[in-house]
Design a protein that fits this description.
mainly beta, seven-stranded mixed sheet, four-stranded antiparallel sheet
Amino acid sequence: VQLVESGGGLVQAGGSLRLSCAASGIMFSITDMAWYRQAPGKQRELVARITSGGSTVYADSVKGRFNNSRDNAKNTVNLQMNSLKPEDTAVYFCSISRTDWGQGTQVTVSS
């Protein structure tokens, strides 16, 4: 299994970023996928989860601002992040069942 995140960067508060996670080595279309993040000195936390059928769950802190989607033809999941806040600053990881992880992509939101 290989998960590769992309799309992180530096953005001002109120801005947007779109993260992508490309998956290989799995039956992607039947696999639930999730995004986690970890800020310095804090535990890794769930940001969003999307089932194989496209149902989504979001952390309360990102509801209404983030949108998780998947493209089964491209074996990718995407996290559209809008109205970003400094507290969204973290390394964002793509994961399968918290057993397989990508390398992470840094998101930094300046105030």
